[in-house]
Specification:
The protein has about 120 residues and is an alpha+beta fold. It has a single domain, classed as 2-Layer Sandwich (GTP Cyclohydrolase I, domain 2). Helices cover about 35% and strands about 30% of the residues. It contains four helices and four strands. It has helices at about 20-25, 40-45, 55-65, 70-85, and strands at about 5-15, 25-35, 90-100, 110-115. The two termini are about 15 Å apart.
Length: about 120
């Protein structure tokens, strides 16, 4: 199956369990993978035959920056639900990464990955 992929959509959001995380905020990155038949778009060279990834980007950043959640699991679910509602897709995988988690130690990120279907 073909896929549309947006990797590393970054924004500054106010999500976290602690009050400080929700007040100060931090950087997040989101990956989105959409299984989608890309043959029609490849033949027609027309945007109407695919999913507009600029609109996907806008939706991801809108959810990530205008709402606040305690858990990144909830953020991932909200993004997936918005994708399934606003685009003609049957499935989406969303990976949310908190780039500077409040953990004493060295790591690239803390994250979750979910796949949701209509």
């Amino acid at each position: 199956m073909d896929k549309i992929i947006l990797k590393g959509v970054q924004f500054y959001g106010y999500h976290g369990v602690s009050d400080e995380e929700r007040e100060v905020g931090q950087k997040y990155a989101v990956d989105v993978e959409i299984p989608y038949d890309l043959k029609p778009a490849g033949k027609s060279d027309n945007l109407r035959d695919t999913v507009n990834y600029a609109k996907v980007y806008k939706l991801v950043t809108q959810v990530g920056t205008t709402e606040s959640f305690k858990l990144i699991e909830t953020l991932a679910r909200k993004i997936a639900d918005a994708m399934l509602t606003n685009f003609p897709i049957d499935s989406v995988t969303v990976r949310v990464m908190k780039l500077t988690p409040p953990i004493a130690g060295n790591l690239d990120y803390a994250g979750v990955e979910i796949t949701r279907n209509k």
